[in-house]
UniProtKB/TrEMBL annotation:
Single GO MF annotation: kinase activity
Identification of the protein by name: Sugar kinase
InterPro entries: ATPase_NBD (IPR043129), ROK (IPR000600)
Sequence similarity: Belongs to the ROK (NagC/XylR) family.
Length: 281
């Protein structure tokens, strides 16, 4: 029986395409996650497109009415859905993902840079509620970023605003990009890469670096210390440039209590050492 005034929530498919995995789920218009899952990110363009289409059609086969699709991707994404770049997912460069998914599913699709999507979500339901000017940083395979000014994501003249990962933290490397925020502070191509080089290891999960540091590993401890210092340096640079009310750090690594404490301590130390910003809140 249908009662007058009943409120039916629309359901949407949300998909986050990362360098190593695709996370997806069914979410309603109030932001409640109904179902969620993940799968590895394929290496070939056509397989990725097939996998993304299958995520949506599988929900439809299960009787779900889908009102829209939202996809977050790393890289430079134009307003028409063209992936100018796609971070570490090189095979997707130049693909009009909006057009591809709409053709295969018949459902309106929005494509957004992953860090921008995270920043929008933080203001809606997360740590940036009631804030109007803030920064978002996402640590994963690489580093993503978003700049929100007066409640709007600032995209820049070429949709490249927020590519904080390209920012240089030092130039004391044979390859200049090795000194970038990506290669110094990302979870995978930063922390894991640096530890594996120094320890001649082949770790694939950053949590193992934290565990080894906790257990007294003489390589993991200084690697983590330097990692926090570099990340704090990058954040301080952004803070003095944009004067945000808050910097929201996301990505899987951000829920680790040791990460949270280590980064905060490094930032506080750096601010204390910097005479010009020492007394700023």
């Amino acid at each position: 029986m249908i009662t007058k005034g009943m409120h039916f929530l629309k359901n949407y498919v949300g998909i986050d395409v990362g360098g190593t995995s695709i996370k997806y789920g069914l979410v309603n218009q109030d932001g409640k996650m109904i179902e969620q899952n993940s799968s590895p990110t394929a290496k070939q363009k056509q397989q990725i497109l097939t996998d993304l289409t299958s995520i949506v059609t599988d929900y439809q086969k299960n009787g779900q009415a889908i009102a829209g699709i939202g996809v977050s991707m790393p890289g430079v994404i134009e307003s028409d859905g063209i992936l100018t770049t796609a971070g570490a997912i090189k095979c997707m460069y130049g693909v009009n993902l909006k057009e591809e998914l709409e053709q295969h599913t018949g459902i309106k699709t929005t494509i957004e840079n992953d860090a921008n999507a995270a920043a929008i979500a933080e203001q809606w339901l997360g740590a940036a509620q009631d804030l109007h000017n803030y920064l978002g940083i996402v640590l994963g395979t690489g580093v993503g970023g978003a700049l929100v000014i007066n409640d709007q994501v600032y995209r820049g003249a070429h949709a490249r605003s927020g590519e904080f990962g390209w920012m240089l933290l030092d130039d004391q490397h044979d390859e200049l990009e090795d000194g970038s925020m990506n290669f110094q502070t990302a979870t995978v191509i930063g922390l894991l890469r640096i530890y594996n080089i120094k320890a001649q290891a082949n770790l694939t999960d950053a949590r193992e670096v934290f565990d080894r540091a906790d257990n007294g590993d003489k390589i993991a401890q200084p690697v983590l210390h330097n990692y926090f210092r570099k990340l704090a340096q990058a954040i301080l640079n952004l803070v003095v440039c944009f004067d945000p009310a808050k910097v929201v750090v996301g990505g899987g690594i951000s829920v680790n209590p040791t990460f949270q404490a280590g980064l905060q301590e490094a930032y506080n130390e750096l601010q204390e050492e910097h005479a010009s910003v020492r007394d700023l809140n």
